Structures are given as C-alpha cells and as structure tokens.
Fold:
Amino acid sequence: MDLDPKDANAYTNLGNALADQGRYLEARRQYEKELVHLQALLDMEPGNVQVKALMAQEALKGGMLEKGTALLAEIETEV
Structure:
C-alpha cells in the first residue's frame, strides 16, 4: 500500500489498523512516521499544545512510552 508521505492521518489510520490486527511492530513504524510529520508542524509552531498532546497520544499508542511521557511533561510545564 502506498501512502502519501505528507499525510500524517494516513499513517495514523494504518497504524491503528495494524495494531487492531496485533501487528504491533508494523503499527509502531507507522506511528513513528506520523510523529515525524507532527514534529514538522510543531517546529513551525513550537507553542502548539494541541500538536504536542497529539504527539504524546500517538507516541503512547505506538509503545514509545519515554517519548510520550516526555511530551506530556512538557505540556504540563507549559500550561
């Protein structure tokens, strides 16, 4: 399946579908790709708490606990 590399939602949807099938390693790879796109958005708007929260959620969903909790800690200090 070819995904538009500019569409973070496509990576989310594929990651969710793979996770639902128990294909967790493949799902994590899709969440990692999504995080790259979200990071690009965050780089343009460093104070965007909504993007950080989404990144944290997706990192946690993808099993990237350190990254997810670090993002949540950043959010906590900003609000």
Notes: The longest helix spans residues 24-44. The mean pLDDT is 89.
